Amino acid sequence: MDNTSLPLNQCRILKTDLIINRLYILLNGVSILALFYYRATNLLTILLTRETPLIPYLVVFVSEIVLTGLWVLHQAYRWRPVKRTVYPERLPGDEKLPAVDVFICTADPSKEPSLGVMNTVISAMALEYPPDKLSVYLSDDGGSWVTLEAMRESWKFAKWWIPFCRKYNVKNRCPEAFFSGGADNLISSNSEFLNDKNEVEKRYQEFNQNLEKNSVNAKSSVSRNHSATVEVMSDATGNVGGATQKEMPLLVYVSREKRPGHAHHFKGGALNTLLRVSAVISNAPYFLVLDCDMYCGDPTSARQAMCFYLDPKIAPKIAWVQYPQKFRNTSPYDIYSGRLHPIWREGQGLDGLTGPTIYGCNFFMTREAIYGTDKIQKDRDLSLLKKSFGVSNEFIKSIHNNKPNVWSDGGKVSDELQKEIQLLASSTYCNGSEWGLEVGYIYFTVVEDSITSLILHCKGWISVLIDPVKPCFLGACTTSLNDMLVQQTRWSFGLMQIGLSRFCPILYGPVRMSILQSLCYTALVFDALYVIPFYGLALMPPICLLYNIPLYPKVSDPYFVVFAFIFLSSQLKHVQEVFSYGDSWRTSLYELRVWMMKSSVCYLYAVINAIADKFGTTEANFSLTNKDIEEEQTRWYQQGIYNYQASPGLIVPLCTLYLINLASFIIGIAKIVLNQTGDQMLVQAILPLFGVIMNYNLLEGMFLRMDKGRVSIFVTLLSIAISAIYLYFGSVLFIY
Length: 736
Ligand SMILES: O=c1ccn([C@@H]2O[C@H](COP(=O)(O)OP(=O)(O)O[C@H]3O[C@H](CO)[C@@H](O)[C@H](O)[C@H]3O)[C@@H](O)[C@H]2O)c(=O)[nH]1
Ligand SMILES: [Mn+2]
What we know:
- By secondary structure, this protein is an alpha/beta fold.
- It is built from 26 helices and 13 strands.
- The strands form three sheets. It has an eight-stranded mixed β-sheet with strand order 5-6-4-3-7-11-9-12, sandwiched between helices. Strands 8-13-10 form a three-stranded mixed β-sheet. Strands 1-2 form a two-stranded antiparallel ribbon.
- Helix 1 runs antiparallel to helix 20 (559-580) and helix 21 crosses helix 23.
- The relative contact order is 0.11.
- Manganese (II) ion (MN) binds at residues 291, 293, 625.
């Protein structure tokens, strides 16, 4: 059959999920209305009779209102979940494929070990794509000679690795993953293959040793005060053997200029520098963004993405094709929910609207979208172009020039071009231009990905999510409680910054994009507001249980059913979603725990910091996620044992809330039995019990474990003290 008549991609609505979702929205929605009716009438009675104190009742009611608000927003994700399939075998021949630039960011070789970063670089170079249409750029925010030297070594090794991969059609093109075993590397048992494999393996070991020797001074090699360095790797660096330069993709090291006191804008700044520098070198119309720990597993990702970009029906509207982040180091327990499955499940819902947000990395994007269609109009004045894109003439020339610049004539970078590149990578280039404001990645928040996608969706672009069975990109997820909480706090803080800015999606979105998509963005940026109902419901019902103040309907009251239904159906809905995504009940338990940990810690700090930031009393900071993981930590993680060695500020809130609920449940149940108040107080005892059972691990951590990963005695004592004070003096809350 003629290939051109067959579709390159297909989008399937997840019908069963859709029906369950909408039914759930209806039933739960009606129940919530009933709940509000109950609360409102009860509140009126309390105001009139003043039989019970007002404050606790108000706290619980407000918690429920906020919870409902967030619930409503989140339903937009459930409206129309879809899944996509691609058919790369139907793509036209190589000569018709567009060029792709790959951008990889790294920042510090002491936290992001060179071997891992270079494996990402090499796996990207080995993508199954015509080499003359592929260019790989590494941005080194550490300006480290260790990283530069490692790039030179990578170039040499890649010259052996890439021909080997092509010759045997290797499926896993990350050398470390290939040589450390797995089914993928058993390509054949013929002697030629084995000989070649041994030869390449020997070179990989040499490469490995060279990097190791080189990395001894990784920490001191990082500099925050240096000029820009851009080096196009080539045979001129004097190495022999392996592939010829023609058979290799372009490999470029970029370290932008950094100066103390200049704003560098973290990863967003790094990516914008790469956009500019690559524009005057290879200038591909599409680019792929990777984090330094995200190697390419399946080498066909670029071809799969082209199934959208070469589909004339939707291509002109698509700004990015997003792959989910998958992780190579998750344990079967996944106690920190590091696989981020809740995010990818919601991604299916976004994909059915106008598309997923950018998830930081693993996406193919068009230059046109990130530059701005209106900014690159052919008839735009030079002065206007300079206002948008800065002063570089070479860069402005590149906008309408689809041809690559240096690569065509043998990779030579002329002195003139080198000067221009220095300008484009300088720390002041963005000043006075629209970079970071309207052009490129937007700067004002640490989640450059979310704000940039919000703005692009608002400009009318769409995006697609593609989640093939064989993961295309594999990274390292966080494997300790501390890392997870720090990372989540950064994300929530960044998102909250968006919520408090003029881009607040509930105001900025609806006139510019679909209402459902706006609701999703609003849910995303205000996720941290869960902190309000979480604290409200973790603090108020327990203390009222102690003082015998009822906040919920009696078990014999018909409204009891309403509360019970809402609680149970929400929990069951979560379990159903976990199952439908192919995970087990264990996943749903761990996800619930992580949600509770995030609500009590990350969301709290995120909201406080975002408010402080709004009033200018704090400075944004990007604490890198550690990728150099200790053995003991990995062991705990693999065995599903929580590691509570974390800064006390992160653990004390968890333990305190736990102890308050534990104590209140024990004393409360005793009181219920003594006073025969079961009918009245049962719900209030069940809530703390639920928290106590679900987070049993915390009890273990505080009182039963003796290992190094337990909750420290100091944290336990401090938490006991705070919870005792709260339970003892909490009755002041009842004065009103
Ligand atoms: O000043 C910086 C800070 C970070 N990075 C790079 O950005 C990437 C992500 O940083 P990481 O420490 O791994 O943070 P994560 O929380 O794991 O990153 C997630 O969250 C980020 C937004 O906060 C997204 O950009 C990422 O793609 C996403 O994986 C890494 O390659 C870093 O080297 C820089 O290049 N410059
Ligand atoms: Mn990361």
